[in-house]
Specification:
Elements: H1 15-31, H2 34-55, H3 62-73, H4 76-84, H5 89-93, H6 97-102, H7 107-121
Amino acid sequence: MSAPESPQDDRTPPWTPMLLALGVLLMATAARHERGVLAALATLVLVPSLWRVLTRRWVRGDVVRGLGMGFIASHAPLLLGACTTLGRPECRIHLCMEGVFAGVPYVPWAGVLGTLLYWAWSAPPPEPRDPPMLPPD
């Protein structure tokens, strides 16, 4: 009899769609087609991320931790916008808000991306260990 196949055998990474997206990215870059480049880059990020989200083993707390990571990641555009104004001397003393406001449209997208990337690429939590057995008194 043959050994039973492990569940990881049928979860091979989606190499074909990723290689196709890479080919589209190279052709769009050569043709200088900006929307094609952005679509191919988004595909290269989303395909392995969604594959991992759909095939991973979910444990208690993954959803809460993923949403927390999305909340943290949603602040990245605001911080980057504030950092762009630091080159001006008047913005070093008082924060110039136009840089922060420039990042506001990207806040929801950064939150979704942070959540997806956490769910897709975080290491699984360690298996719970049994507590040591204490000798009877």
